[in-house]
Predict the 3D structure of the following.
Amino acid sequence: MLDLPAADLDAETAAYFQKCMEKLGFIPNVLAAYAHDLAKLKAFAAMYNDLMLAPSGLSKLEREMIAVVVSSANRCYYCLAAHGAAVRQLSGDPVLGELMVMNYRAARLPARHAAMLDFAWKLTETPHAVVDADRAALTAAGFSDRDIWDIVAVTGFFNMSNRIGIGTDMRPNAEYHAQAR
Amino acid sequence: MLDLPAADLDAETAAYFQKCMEKLGFIPNVLAAYAHDLAKLKAFAAMYNDLMLAPSGLSKLEREMIAVVVSSANRCYYCLAAHGAAVRQLSGDPVLGELMVMNYRAARLPARHAAMLDFAWKLTETPHAVVDADRAALTAAGFSDRDIWDIVAVTGFFNMSNRIGIGTDMRPNAEYHAQAR
Amino acid sequence: MLDLPAADLDAETAAYFQKCMEKLGFIPNVLAAYAHDLAKLKAFAAMYNDLMLAPSGLSKLEREMIAVVVSSANRCYYCLAAHGAAVRQLSGDPVLGELMVMNYRAARLPARHAAMLDFAWKLTETPHAVVDADRAALTAAGFSDRDIWDIVAVTGFFNMSNRIGIGTDMRPNAEYHAQAR
Amino acid sequence: MLDLPAADLDAETAAYFQKCMEKLGFIPNVLAAYAHDLAKLKAFAAMYNDLMLAPSGLSKLEREMIAVVVSSANRCYYCLAAHGAAVRQLSGDPVLGELMVMNYRAARLPARHAAMLDFAWKLTETPHAVVDADRAALTAAGFSDRDIWDIVAVTGFFNMSNRIGIGTDMRPNAEYHAQAR
Amino acid sequence: MLDLPAADLDAETAAYFQKCMEKLGFIPNVLAAYAHDLAKLKAFAAMYNDLMLAPSGLSKLEREMIAVVVSSANRCYYCLAAHGAAVRQLSGDPVLGELMVMNYRAARLPARHAAMLDFAWKLTETPHAVVDADRAALTAAGFSDRDIWDIVAVTGFFNMSNRIGIGTDMRPNAEYHAQAR
Amino acid sequence: MLDLPAADLDAETAAYFQKCMEKLGFIPNVLAAYAHDLAKLKAFAAMYNDLMLAPSGLSKLEREMIAVVVSSANRCYYCLAAHGAAVRQLSGDPVLGELMVMNYRAARLPARHAAMLDFAWKLTETPHAVVDADRAALTAAGFSDRDIWDIVAVTGFFNMSNRIGIGTDMRPNAEYHAQAR
């Protein structure tokens, strides 16, 4: 694991970490890893919070499902552990979390979710081959252009964070494994 | 192309776009595309500017070389056009830009750059297979742990932005093609 | 799910299923699925029980680790659920089970296990490329020729059963998910 | 080649080998290789004989065609030699055997066989991507659910035995090469 | 770069090289590389000139588009540099040349060209999977059987020359990079 | 099969076909297929005859071994049938021909041939990844620069002709199958 010494936290970051402790009981290791450089940490957290928590035509659970399916394609241990837990928690369905980790095609998903995840998988595995017909399949499944943006953006984001997790050999907090089983 | 109506620019964004016009003569289409939602635009710009422009053990040219090689692996038209131009410009070597677009292995690179780009390629193409030995090869090529973080982070970022470019069918500004030929 | 009507159980099979109920509390769905044809069920069970339970230079846990890593490569939901649970149970280490499901390369394994799983992965993903050097790596890691046979045989077996699980859309028993968390 | 010393044959195995000598003129090397452990040999032979010789909606030739196409995908020398000979023999058409070895898509097959082999190929090469639509294509080609089970089971079996053949570097008996040319 | 000493040019070859100098201002390095053996040079030049310059239902630009797309799939620096320039020149559209190098799917091509390049890409990347339906798609796009021959032949030729370029580490003439920008 | 009407043969071509009849007893279908256009036929035959029959540091058998291994990678029925026969004939070893078709790695080849075929396979399957180290492995195995040229050229040629065989659905002459068994 790439272990860079943490910077001194400024007030904003200290408050953010404090909020993590209160809400989660721990500071996610991805934030601790980024804490070697506060500018990088803030940029990452701002993008993450906007993508995963801001209003969107996609529910928070849907965004977490994309997160796990992308991480499954890329086999990122950190993100599978952390976001697999989030799917279990948000859905109240532990089996759904396992299915997203193991193979989303084995889940008996409604057409909307199958289309969404088929797109995310293709954009992850063979981005060069994505064409208008792929976007049209999302439109046909009821997604607006803004929804498509959000599917693309979440897919893109986890293709980034999977590579940061794997590239730095990041370890998930132990707490994730037992959550919402 | 996914064409979402631009939001009203706030003062900060208007100033940023104004600075683009002054420095580049145009507003990069990726920023225009993000302008449908200022929170997303700002998060993207903050991360981009930190990664590509802030102090780092990697030169700006090295970061642009990674950007183009990742985009070559993923075959992202937008990023190859925009960052291919950046490599030509920063290096003063138009052929180097072409080599990064076409196949970096054909370039006769110093060992440092070959190691850096081999790592970026592997983390892009087969992230699941990256192991300690891959990081050790970077250390052996003279990169510090912080440099490795930056190689990982730039590689990750363009794996995101390539998918945003392709997923939304983004078009590069016409100006890039002729720059620094 | 391919749902073939069960045959009438003969005494031997009924006793086997009874033993499952006593030891596990349920009949594994793979056995129920095979029960449409007792000859097939018996052949499958005989091979499975010999491979996974008979004396071997590989511990039962090691055999289950191979089972999960092969199933991870092939993304078989049934086998990941069932054998992931077995790794958690036999090792007493729930995180090890998750690591085998998600990406065994992220586990900090002793050299013996890394060599064993690297071989199983390669024989699964690119069987055509396996050569003497791959067997030599197992020998160097301390495996005897008979151990290598067993690694090969377990890897082969799960390449079969993964395809039976996926090809018939088999569903794991609900009990596996919560076991040994 | 992994060469484990043969166990002392019990009466049942000796009789089985005797029957091979009478019917084939030789003992298939796969059986000789398994003879280091009679329990393993019997489990393998029981499964093989049930799958390839028991009554089924698939003819014996059809099962051998699947065997060769799976072995072609995995490039298993042993199985291609042995089962290529079986296709030549059962079909009385030496060119059909060559086509199954070389590329089944070049054969001008009836729709039933094309559907059967397309399914076997996909389940072999990209098992994770097999979905209901793939089974539906078999149903549309006239296969019953029990036939689909058999297609899946034969495909699975040769994905196992190919890996045992390659993993132990097994050599086909010289007799196969000239059979039924 | 594989650098074999040039043979003494015979009159025919000297005239051919002279013509190159007059028309292009330089001798393409591929011809210089082949000049170590005049029989090989003449066979290569004869095939190249027939394929790319002789009358055909495909325009010269269309043949060059195939050349670049095949070279993009194979990532051949020499051919991308040389034939990318040819597309720019013949089309008078520098951006079209870039699109063929970077990702032809991002170009908004007429259906005829999309069909032609989809076929060339598939025949390059997965030749074993090409079937009648792929040829039928060309027929549906208006190509005659003779046109299909020419698409196949140009695709085949650049799959050869890409491998000669890469295999011998051939360097493109510097002149190509700036042409027709 | 793409079936273009043959052109009227000129004297040179008629004599060439006559020679085929005398030496082989038939006209190879690839030549018949090319006979729709004599310029194309002559260019193909000239290149083929030079590559496969002219003096070289590689024996004719070695060149045919490369031909079959490349055709095995690409799964070209025509070339595997025709050149598999050539390997059987030139080597007097029918099993060697089968091994080249099925998986050359299963053959127990001298180091020279293993190095030659490993290079041909890599240049066929992942041309973009071939680097100086791959050429150095050939040098270390005793090949001169001119030999390397010939390995590259034969590999390239069959990457072309495989795609012409598959792309036009060419059928091998029936005679090949039984030759030299």
Summary: The two ends of chain A are 28 Å apart (CA to CA).
